[in-house]
Amino acid sequence: MKKIPKPYSVMMEEIKDRLKGKNGIKRAREIQQLLKEIPWSVGDYRRIKDGLRKELKELEVIEQAKKASRSRTKTKKSTPQFAIIGVTNSGKSTLINNLTGTDIPIGSYPYTTIEPQYGALEHDKISFQLVEIPAIYEGCWDGDKSTLGMIHSADCLLIVGRSFDDFKIILKELETQNIELIGNRMDDGFIQTIPRKIPAFLIYDKNTETMPSSHLKKISSEDYVEIKRNMVEMIKPVRIFTMNSFNEIQEQPIVFYNDPITVKDVMQRVTKSKIEIFKDAILLEGGPNGRRKRVGITYELSDNDVIHLTFQK
Ligand SMILES: Nc1nc2c(ncn2[C@@H]2O[C@H](COP(=O)(O)OP(=O)(O)O)[C@@H](O)[C@H]2O)c(=O)[nH]1
Ligand SMILES: [Mg+2]
Fold first, then answer.
1. Could you give the angle at the alpha carbon of 76 between the alpha carbons of 112 and 64, nearest 5°?
2. What is the pLDDT of residues 225-250, one digit of tens each?
3. CA pair distance 129, 198, nearest whole angstrom
């Protein structure tokens, strides 16, 4: 960039342009480069640089989180991960135990959990990983950001609380960290956006009188069925059942978390055969009792579809 100061708006346009389409490490590098190139640290320039520095920090947190989640989920690549968060003694451990049947110690005194606790559960043929994040309190991310990284890497948050204030603290801390909570999964699946948008719902206790007005779904901590149902709904899985030539349907579906899903996607998961020898697929729409039809390789599948792939001999 030239030495003559450019107007704020021109500068912003130029920065937007250079960051356009760049994500993750590439974006971080470009921001570092921009910070070097912008010579002044006064007035509008200072504001711009502060903004860039802030985003760079966030990118670093997200990259760390991604690394952490990669090493954690090496064997279970596509298992959705739900993070349980709340203030201390809000019933996080109790919830994870009730949902998964594990036995995480329940505290009768504050600050029981200082390490994340893990649990796993299956519901409607979908596996979930649950992780209880150590208690959140006001200003807890001023120093150590490790729990923040875990939240960034989660696919969905279960926010547990027993009072208006419990929820308010969490919502405020997340907002401070530029994390936006959304009521539904994004259409393009579990991408790590900047700023981070994470689907979430609130889990309240039966004695909770009021809750912060929020666009998020609220479910009772005792209604496990409803919690699990919402967990499945939140990730919008596409479960495809395969059928052999004897019309026997596999019990375990092939699960996809990004739609749209085509016959080709299923084929790539189940066989190493070349696409050239694919003939067609027999489809039972929406389940074993669904309408039967023949479809091609580009056909778009829906949740619970049953298919049988046929190949040329
Ligand atoms: N009233 C009430 N107490 C609960 C609930 N869930 C857990 N507790 C109790 O609250 C205390 C802390 O629970 P715990 O699950 O360890 O909370 P955590 O610190 O958020 O993990 C324990 O004594 C639990 O028995 C709840 O939904 N309502
Ligand atoms: Mg706990």
1. 60
2. 999 999 999 988 999 999 998 999 99
3. 16
Chain centre distance of CA 131:
13
The SS3 call for residue 120 is strand
Using CA atoms, how far residue 165 sits from 132, 138, 187, 213, in Å, is 20, 11, 32, 12
Please tell me the pTM assigned to this model. 0.74
Query: 149-180: b or e for each residue (b if 16 or more CB lie within 10 Å)?
Result: bbbbbbbbbbbbbbbeebbebbbebbeebebe
Whether residue 107 has its Cβ less than 6 Å from ligand 1: yes
Gap from CA of 119 to ligand 1 centroid (Å): 17
Say if CB 272 and CB 243 are below 8 A apart.
no
Closest CA to 286 of 259, 304, 300, 301: 304
Q: What pairing do the DSSP bridges indicate for beta strands 156-161 and 81-85?
A: parallel
Residue nearest to atom 7 of ligand 1 (CA): 91
Beta partners for 256? 238
d(CA 93, ligand 1 centre) in Å: 7
Q: List, for residues 263-298, the tens digit of each pLDDT value.
A: 999 998 888 777 888 999 999 999 999 999 999 999
